[in-house]
């Protein structure tokens, strides 16, 4: 019973739940503000994502007349709950070691696609042609970026596993512990291609420019989200905020989880700063510099560049021990 309450606290309050939601919405606000400044606009206030969630929570939920109502209601819950669990599993170096017995990268491979699956279910159940197009685009995009992600995770697992006398190490806690003792993997030349591949993976899994194919406003009018309103749309936005924290936190844990003196409060702030810097370089700068790619261009890009870089690191890690 004590273990059950512990898991509930870590999923609903810290490091998932309230903490991850606040950090994710703050990251989204900073992303919008910095992008606006780069485009010489004033931009919205940094707390605007919080205001949007409150506003949507007070709106009426309108269901499509010819849609599949149970699936339409379930889709945002699926993505949101998947990211709640993922935020609990992910460790915060110097603060939280991850859920014991659950905190491994293989589980993260199953949890990360949950928001994409939710978008596909939402588009398919909305009876909207725009939703169907967006769902099909999201499916193609997911197949494209999951390949380099798997190679990156295997490269990190083999690197730490070989260094610690094993074959592959999928435990987040042990990966963080190894880097705290031996230095961050981002400074290892064999792992730097994998880090570049992960940077390219980030905008794809977050549905950010130039890979916002499923929700392209000028083409499919938000696609799967077109028919959503009120709390359902708010839950999609909350799931996206949680995914922002999970993806950035995954990059921090795998490549530069170093801590600083000062206790858990200081390290919690340091984790948030590293997530913010990773977001600015992988999402904000890319959004400011590029336009949307076509579906075929996106698929070829992920199979050509991130996948190649990730496999280079995987090969180097496997053969150079």
From TrEMBL:
It holds the Pfam family NADHdh. It is found in: Membrane. The chain crosses the membrane at residues 6-27, 74-96, 108-127, 139-158, 191-211, 232-256, 268-289, 301-320. One of its GO terms (cellular component) is plasma membrane. Keywords: Membrane, Transmembrane, Transmembrane helix. Coiled coil: none annotated. It is a multi-pass membrane protein. InterPro entries: ComplexI_Subunit1, NADH_UbQ_OxRdtase_su1/FPO, NADH_UbQ_OxRdtase_su1_CS. Its main location: membrane. This is NADH-quinone oxidoreductase subunit H. It comes from Desulfobaculum xiamenense.
